[in-house]
Design brief:
The complex is a heterodimer.
Chain A: H1 3-8, H2 24-30, H3 34-57, H4 67-89, H5 91-97, H6 108-118, H7 123-153, E1 155-156, E2 159-160, H8 175-194
Antiparallel strand pairs in A: 1-2
Helix pairs in contact in A: 3-4, 3-6, 3-7, 4-5, 4-6, 6-7
Chain B: H1 3-16, H2 27-32, H3 37-66, H4 81-103, H5 105-111, H6 115-118, H7 122-133, H8 138-166, H9 178-193
Helix pairs in contact in B: 1-8, 3-4, 3-7, 3-8, 4-7, 7-8
Classes of the chains: A mainly alpha, B mainly alpha.
Chain lengths: 196, 201
Amino acid sequence: MSTITEFTKGLYKENPVFRLALGLCPTLAVSTSIENGLGMGVAALFVLLGSNIIVSLIRKAVPPKIRIPVYIVIIATFVTIAEMLMQAFSPQLYKSLGIFVPLIVVNCIILGRAEAFAGKNTVGRSILDALGMGLGFTLALVLLGFFRELLGSGKLLGIPVLGTSYQPVLLMILPPGAFLTLGLFLGFFNWLESRK
Amino acid sequence: MDLGNLFVIVIASIFINNFVLARSLGICPYIGVSRRLDSALSMGIAVTFVMTLASAATWLIYTVLLAPETNVWGVDLIFLKTIAFILVIAVLVQLIEMIIQKTSAGLYKALGIYLPLITTNCAILGVAVLNIEEGYSFIESLIHSFSAGVGFTMALVLMSGLREKYELAELPESMKGAPIAFITAGLMAIAFLGFSGFSLK
């Protein structure tokens, strides 16, 4: 596989949310608005980048039998760093993401990439893979956040866009809206794929 | 011990704040293991079991080793919470797997394949973090995590009942599998919104 596709595969062809259906808990929970989606996406991208770099650096030193616990500790360390940075620089976002910040540890995209990619590839490729996958995840969250925020509150990035006559569909920013939107998106991407 | 308070925790964590349908936790097993009723039930029982044990372990670790007010060295180690919790959970799951394998072949056969999946089930770490955030006592944590597990099992079993029915329905090809499962979950979540009108005080 060429270097470029290492990066681009995460954006569409192997998009973690829409194509691989990974990392769904945070996807459903925090895609209530573009801002929350972007915040979670960037935090996950940071953790993914950090863990992919370290995992690929030490891949030859880690005995295969204990690799999973080692990966989990590395990921948890980066999550703690992300948690502290977020608390310091964006307490508002930290509050609205709530328990889903520490839960980045169990986001299966991150452990999945460490196990399936970074543990077998060079640092350079792992960085590209992390950037692609992280951006793909962010894109998915922002896309879901866009529709849910628009329909659920008539706003985009907190600015009213649909006018005062629009009656917000509150359901869209509640959990059911997340399930319905994601279901329709998964179906849509399956349909796109089947037309090829 | 205030029994009324415990009752509120039980009802709230099964119905009002259902882990799957209201808090969006544990979605992967919810979609992945809800194809058949018996496997859904086994998964639910395994998760409830691990959740209760994990929250006991993490609560003790937090109180004895991490929280500055109560820990043995009086130093603020709360920043280690995430790392400590996930390690405790991973070790615990491994331990349970080993114990079950040695003591009960039948139980191992029923739950064995689900146990490794549980380490990265966000419902387990989620319940541990929630116990701390809500400031629950030890007993309250146990009750909360057990009933959260019951709520999870209920959602899983209900879902598998629905899926066994619509397996035979005619669907557009691209909606089969996960997409229609999410739509179904969305409709179930709307039904569960009805519970959020309860005020338990």
